[in-house]
Amino acid sequence: MKPTGRHDVDSNSKDCRSERVMQNIFVGNLSIDTSEHALRTLFEAFGQVLSVNIVKDRDTATPRGFAFVEMSSNAQAQAAIAALNGTVIEGRRVNVNEARPKDIDSSDVQQRMRRHRDHRY
Q1: Residue 25: how many CB atoms within 10 A of its CB?
Q2: Distance (Å, rounded) from C-alpha 111 to C-alpha 13?
Q3: What's the pLDDT tens digit per position in 96-110?
Q4: What does the pLDDT look like over 15-70, one tens digit per residue?
Q5: Which of 1, 40, 82, 105 has the lowest tally of Cβ within 10 angstroms?
Q6: Taking the model in full, what pTM does it have?
Q7: 3-state SS record for 61-107
């Protein structure tokens, strides 16, 4: 008698879900001349790119030297990270790795709120 194996079905469906999860990638040490189009083209060689965001200074709008690339699957993102980490893009050796969520310290939040309150008009 062949087991129906509910466990087998669950483990397979879990693998499928992990493939559909979007993956956010951090790209650091970028030249200020690097464009979103250039990054998108570079990462599209490894799969579908959902978004590219080059972080810019709030006051001057100049690039801060890092970006986030969001890819449609974890497998594609891992392939891009493995291939592109340490490569030279526009004269700079870039760091490419999985983006980590920003740690927010409660005292940091309180300081920001205090600064915001003090600078109201």
Answers
A1: 25
A2: 44
A3: 999 988 766 656 666
A4: 444 445 679 999 999 999 999 999 999 999 999 999 999 999 999 999 999 999 99
A5: 1
A6: 0.69
A7: CCEEEEEEEEECCHHHHHHHHHHHCCCEECCEECEEEECCCCCCCHH
If residue 50 lies in a helix (H) or strand (E), which one and from where to where?
strand 49-56
CA distance 109 to 115: 10
Q: How far apart are CA 62 and CA 73, in angstroms?
A: 30
Q: Which residue reads 């983006």 in tokens?
A: 99
| CA separation for the pair 7, 58 (Å, rounded) | 50
- Domains of the chain, CATH where assigned: 20-118 (3.30.70.330)
Give me the sign of the Cα torsion angle 57, 95, 49, 10: negative
